[in-house]
Write a structure and sequence with these properties.
By secondary structure, this protein is of the alpha+beta class. It is built from five helices and seven strands. The strands form two sheets. It has a five-stranded antiparallel sheet with strand order 1-2-3-6-7, with helices on both faces. A two-stranded antiparallel sheet has the order 4-5.
Amino acid sequence: MDIVKIPEKILSTPPHHAKVNEIKAGKHRTLIASMRKDMVDAKGVGLAANQVGQPIALFVIDRSLASENGVPDAYFNPEITEMSREQDETEEGCLSIPGWYAPIRRAKKIKIKAVDEHGNKIKFKARGFLARVLQHETDHLHGITIKDWVSPKASRR
């Protein structure tokens, strides 16, 4: 699969939620495997399904990052349920905006809930770099890219 670049419309359009029965039946296994490979090949740490042209609420993150933090590396229908007031600013890039980087302010800690690749509901707290990656990928599933954060009309949710 090719990674979609801005200004492709799919990047600014929130995708549809995955059905848990379809996740449990393994309907998306091939997509997840392909996304993992594409992310590694592109030297990324996260990749949302809409970045590969698939309008489904799914993203994958780097397996080492997930393993280090004891969390899954595939997330369906993610929702950030809490964000700390404490923030930091770090330069971010995006596979859909090659060669472009910008300082982005994000919450240092979050709580997230989602469905894993086996159809199980998950919920946990994340901090630091993991929290940043989860926020970045969740943004993609809301039709938001890092360019939106630095534009004059950018707003936090």
